[in-house]
Design the sequence.
């Protein structure tokens, strides 16, 4: 290898056949001042402004917008040489600003402006600035709970909500210039004098020719960091929920209040944006800015494009002269189905040519425009290639004379396995609504070491290393770095419960006793196909993937994704595993942003509808999903989570006086059946089921405890019909009243459910303990703890035989016994005394 100061590796990989941006750039190191400057530049960029008529044009944002209505119209003409900054300045640094006194619900007196502001055909030369995030023209407005638009009042509202600037909770500043008026709500709090969360936003209105917001526009909204939505008098819950804030403009003087544009209603934390009427997350507005032309109303002109997304078609509508009112869409997909969505995804039953028709018209409250109809033919090709051989450039930094190195990656796309609704006012990382940071993978570097001749301990045995490229680890595109171990699942308490090594072999662990102590370790098995319980659990609910309780049990199946793009999600799970689900929760982090590849963004979407699904063409054990809502407008990677609630209907009888190990066991009278839907078993794979059973007769010495005692395993399909069953009975010696059940069965189908029927047989009562299941090709060791002091009380080996541990009153281990086929044998015993004289 030639020595280079800043080499660039050329790597050829397979990627989805869709556009994405990858740039090889020199980047400042994280934590440096240059890196912080780079982050600030990403928040407040300077870009070229687009001119559009009568429509809220998104000029720039810090992340890709999830709302397709924010796309710049392809009919718009760029204003060459004109810059547009989305930053909100601190007015204290400009002495020409005037200020409203600290107040709640107050306004300025009338302010004369030296230009004509055309608001849907009406010229205004005076304005009132209202503390609650808006301006009005005919009279001041003190309304603190927003009503949304349309409404009878004339108003322009960058953020209509209950602003309270008393008690040093921010300030409202304004400046009148020859061709524009600027109003800034800087670092403002909410009613009643709350300052734990602050908002910063700005409004500019102009004569329509002022270059500050672009000729052809006369209104602009700007946003800084937005942290709250609702005041206490509007049913706020610590700044959120209750009556949402309104963003938009409304001319109540128009015919039938027809002329308005509502950008959104914001009433909750987070960055999720759904539509202009549904309640969205306020962080969606962070560091964005929008421009409007609010002067005229014209007839609609429209067109649409389409893109084939594997098993669905993504339709995108374009408006050449978008207006400040609602656009009504009527789609006819040519296969007998229709939609009124703005930008629908549609799945066709088969390939072929279809005639698609789009009818569009404006509806502004009582006003309705004329129809515009666009008709196109689209052709779906089922043989279209999904992947291509792609060359990317991976920038690296060369390190010489390296002896050894390893590294680990972390990701914040790991979802928690629960949501605590009682903590809605807390951080999403605390209540489970956001992803959390966890370790993702371990890497080692593998190249040949230098050899010196003659051998030298000083100079030999080292190697040259390409520095780890963090931004390209997401697609395993780091040259010479080998992913040694990948974390594939965590418990709700962030304990690692499954991983995959470099050979593709999975190891897993079960945690019990409140979720904090390991109850089983499994080698060569997945977490979802192993189970163990000693019936020692604390809550009366599921234990170690077994279900023996009557409380609701949230069921989560979650998987990591491969490289994803927009609506396309590559899930590392087979179609059979995710069959029966129509929605999915998606957690992801964007990659390969067109600016700095290292600057990532996190986002999640709950209950995302699955439009269609398909088997991965290169990995049959994976699936490709097309989702209704795109997580990002570019490429990303993360996790998906399938949710369902289980409600066991049989309550287990746990006996505190009988046990094989520990202190409890399952008491059975007759036949009792328990459905086990937490397990996901593979077809054609052999599984080992093991348990211990007793009839509470220490003197029983015959080889069989009784007739028909045992466990029946029933395998059911997705329609709850039994496919096959297996009966496992006790065998071997009876050891102090307990006899082992040990047998195997093969699961014949995928997407199956198993039921366990425990039988006491000829005995009126039987007790079962230390129940476990795992693949026959794997090994399991399980553990039992004392519920009083949590000391290890027993371990059970691969054959489910126990080693018992005994402690003195001071907590010292003094006796170890081992269970064997011949009985329980003492292994070690150590008793010591300290006598005082």
Sequence:
């Amino acid at each position: 290898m030639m020595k280079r100061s800043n080499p660039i590796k050329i790597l050829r990989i397979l990627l989805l056949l869709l556009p994405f941006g990858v740039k090889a750039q020199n980047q400042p190191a994280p934590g440096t001042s240059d890196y912080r400057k780079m982050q600030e530049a990403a928040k407040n960029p300077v870009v070229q402004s687009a001119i559009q008529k009568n429509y809220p044009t998104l000029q720039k944002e810090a992340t890709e917008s999830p709302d397709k209505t924010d796309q710049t119209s392809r009919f718009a003409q760029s204003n060459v040489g004109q810059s547009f900054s989305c930053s909100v300045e601190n007015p204290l640094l400009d002495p020409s600003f005037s200020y409203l006194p600290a107040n709640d619900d107050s306004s300025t007196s009338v302010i004369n402006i030296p230009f004509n502001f055309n608001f849907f055909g009406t010229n205004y030369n005076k304005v009132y600035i209202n503390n609650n995030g808006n301006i009005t023209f005919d009279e001041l407005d003190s309304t603190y709970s927003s009503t949304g638009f349309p409404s009878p009042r004339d108003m322009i509202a960058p953020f209509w909500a209950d602003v309270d600037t008393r008690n040093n909770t921010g300030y409202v500043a304004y400046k009148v210039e020859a061709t524009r008026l600027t109003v800034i709500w800087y670092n403002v709090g909410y009613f009643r004098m709350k300052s734990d969360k602050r908002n910063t936003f700005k409004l500019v209105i102009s004569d329509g020719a002022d270059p500050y917001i672009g000729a052809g526009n006369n209104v602009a909204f700007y946003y800084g960091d937005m942290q709250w939505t609702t005041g206490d008098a509007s049913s706020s819950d610590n700044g959120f929920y209750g009556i949402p804030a309104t963003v938009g403009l409304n001319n109540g003087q128009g015919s039938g209040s027809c002329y308005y544009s509502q950008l959104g209603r914001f009433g909750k934390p987070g960055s999720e944006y759904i539509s202009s009427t549904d309640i969205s997350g306020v962080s969606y507005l962070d560091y964005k800015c929008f421009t409007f032309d609010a002067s005229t109303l014209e007839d609609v002109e429209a067109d649409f494009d389409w893109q084939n997304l594997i098993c669905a078609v993504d339709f995108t509508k374009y408006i050449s002269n978008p207006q400040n009112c609602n656009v009504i869409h009527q789609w006819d997909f040519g296969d007998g189905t229709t939609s009124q969505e703005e930008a629908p995804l549609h799945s066709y039953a088969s390939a072929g040519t279809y005639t698609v028709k789009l009818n569009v018209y404006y509806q502004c409250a009582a006003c309705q425009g004329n129809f515009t109809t666009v008709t196109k033919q689209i052709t779906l090709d089922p043989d279209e290639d999904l992947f291509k051989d792609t060359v990317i450039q991976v920038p690296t930094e060369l390190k010489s004379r390296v002896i050894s190195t390893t590294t680990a990656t972390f990701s914040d796309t790991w979802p928690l396995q629960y949501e605590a609704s009682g903590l809605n006012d807390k951080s999403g990382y605390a209540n489970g609504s956001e992803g959390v940071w966890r370790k993702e993978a371990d890497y080692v570097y593998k190249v040949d070491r230098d050899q010196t001749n003659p051998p030298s301990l000083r100079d030999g045995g080292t190697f040259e290393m390409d520095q780890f490229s963090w931004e390209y680890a997401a697609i395993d595109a780091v040259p010479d770095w080998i992913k040694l171990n990948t974390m594939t699942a965590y418990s709700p308490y962030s304990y690692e419960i499954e991983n995959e090594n470099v050979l593709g072999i999975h190891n897993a662990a079960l945690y019990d006793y409140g979720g904090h102590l390991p109850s089983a370790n499994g080698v060569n098995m997945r977490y979802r196909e192993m189970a163990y319980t000693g019936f020692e659990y604390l809550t009366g609910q599921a234990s170690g993937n077994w279900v023996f309780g009557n409380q609701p049990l949230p069921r989560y199946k979650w998987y990591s994704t491969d490289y994803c793009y927009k609506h396309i999600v590559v899930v590392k799970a087979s179609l059979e595993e995710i069959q029966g689900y129509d929605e999915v929760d998606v957690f992801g982090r964007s990659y390969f942003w067109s600016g700095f590849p290292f600057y990532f963004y996190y986002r999640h979407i709950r209950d995302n509808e699955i439009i269609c699904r398909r088997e991965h063409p290169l990995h049959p054990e994976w699936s490709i999903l097309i989702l209704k809502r795109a997580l990002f407008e570019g490429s990303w990677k993360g996790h998906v989570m399938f949710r369902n609630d289980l409600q066991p209907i049989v309550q287990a009888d746990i006996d505190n006086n009988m046990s094989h190990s520990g202190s409890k066991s399952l008491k059975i009278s007759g036949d009792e059946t328990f459905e086990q839907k937490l397990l996901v078993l593979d077809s054609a794979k052999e599984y080992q089921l093991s348990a211990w059973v007793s009839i509470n007769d220490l003197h029983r010495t015959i080889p069989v405890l009784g007739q028909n005692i045992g466990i029946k395993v029933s395998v059911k399909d997705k329609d709850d019909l039994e496919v096959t069953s297996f009966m496992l009975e006790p065998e071997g010696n009876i050891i102090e009243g307990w006899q082992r059940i040990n047998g195997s069965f093969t699961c014949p189908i995928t997407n199956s459910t198993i039921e366990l029927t425990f039988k006491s047989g000829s005995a009126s009562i039987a007790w079962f303990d230390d129940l476990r299941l795992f693949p026959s090709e794997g090994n399991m060791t399980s553990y039992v703890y004392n519920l009083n002091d949590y000391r290890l009380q027993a371990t059970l080996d691969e054959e489910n035989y126990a080693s018992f541990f005994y402690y003195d009153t001071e907590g010292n281990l003094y006796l170890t016994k081992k269970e064997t086929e011949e009985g329980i044998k003492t292994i070690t015993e150590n008793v010591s005394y300290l006598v005082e004289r």
User: Anything to note?
Assistant: The longest helix spans residues 33-43.
